[in-house]
Amino acid sequence: MTTIFLERGTQLLQEILNVLNQNQGALSVLLSFLLVIAYIAQYRSMEKQREILEEQTKLSHQPVIAIDKWYIKDDALFFELSNIGSGTAKDIELAILIAPLPENTDTHLDRTINSEEIIWNEVNQIQEQEYMAEYGTEVSHQVIGRGALRAGETGVTVFAPYSIVIECWDPESNDHVFYSGFDNFKETNLDEEEDHYVNTGNDLFKFQVSFKYSNSLSDVIEEKLIWSQKFNIHEVDSLMDIVKAENVRDEDPRETIQPQNLRQPSSFYNNNSGGR
């Protein structure tokens, strides 16, 4: 039986070879077609391997920023950060949003990050140097880097200054209004005759702090709201005043991080060491 199958197989193979010998053109086309299919399969396999490798690289070099604490001092926003991930964090940016609230508003603040309302500010990485002066302890800020944090760096202080320009979102005009410092912001919004008056009449504004950073490939890793509260413009004279415990109204603690100003209000305001 085996001999019969072998003979028939040999005959079939011979017939196929005879057909191919008689149709050399068809054989060439067939081989070219099979070669193209092989190339396509190889390309797809290599592309898949490349995607897997890129994803593994991203995961193995992913920054994770922990916010150790944040505070406002002298109308500047300070964050102390640690990168507990395995990759460099780039494009670290902070944002403060101030906007008037509608009259008779009793609802919680909108906690979504509206890209139109926010102006992101690149941060400066600083080193705080404390020294004793004739009239007590003073602090100097030495800028040592901008907007990046390597893996393993801990307790790094970054800041974004707001003493020169205060930005406020005006829902009425759907645009930003800029003031030359906090004094100008307050004076303007206590006088209805002023050109840049955005106060809705109840003297209440929302104050929100946001934070974001990217990885080394410039992919945004995290963008989130850090703090959300209301304040009365009559009760504050600076950004620092806004987060004093007695001036905070209807803060929204869900997934937010309290400023150092709230955790240690007395020692913080009486100490010039930047909240340390």
Automatic annotation (TrEMBL):
Keywords: Membrane, Transmembrane, Transmembrane helix. The chain crosses the membrane at residues 25-41. Residues 250-276 are annotated as: Disordered. Residues 257-276 have a biased composition (Polar residues). This is Uncharacterized protein. It comes from Natronorubrum texcoconense.
